[in-house]
Write a structure and sequence with these properties.
single chain, 5-stranded antiparallel sheet, disordered N terminus, mainly beta, 1 helix
Length: 149
């Protein structure tokens, strides 16, 4: 009987029916699974992929991410801890071109209708560095990203 229960539990876990999802961990990269969906639903991607536009900066067991312009996703309940909030920072470099779709960015070829990353300042969180461009600032890691309008 005990082996049958363990086998059934293992089968549910492996089939994805457990209610627990495998999400990117801190430091790993992710992309929105469907940019046309307004609900944040990130999936892990290799950081060397052009699709890797976001990086998990922290996992919080509270209601807010650290101070900054994080894209946030709340996971389902985990054993004993309740909901977990994933905090994502833009993972871009100067010269990258982005397309805004809903609240997300996609990395795209530069052209009409795209926005260019004009500055990435590691170790500084200061909107004034962007001189009229849109800015994204983060406190963990400390970073400012400037994006043309």
């Amino acid at each position: 009987m005990r082996i049958t229960v363990l086998a059934a539990a293992l089968a549910l876990l492996l089939s994805g029916c457990s209610g627990f999802t495998d999400q990117a961990g801190v430091g790993e990269c992710a992309k929105q699974s469907d940019v046309n969906d307004t609900a944040v639903d990130m999936v892990e991607v290799d950081c060397s992929s052009p699709e890797a536009v976001y990086r998990v900066s922290s996992r919080e067991r509270r209601t807010m991410c650290p101070t900054g312009d994080y894209l946030t996703e709340s996971s389902g309940r985990t054993r004993g801890t309740g909901k977990t909030r994933y905090c994502y920072v833009l993972e871009v470099k100067e010269g990258d071109c982005l397309k805004a779709v809903n609240q997300y960015f996609e990395r795209v070829e530069c052209g009409a209708g795209t926005r260019r990353v004009t500055k990435v300042a590691e170790g500084e969180s200061d909107r004034s560095l962007c001189a009229g461009d849109d800015s994204k600032t983060y406190s963990q890691p400390v970073k400012t990203i400037c994006i043309s309008r």
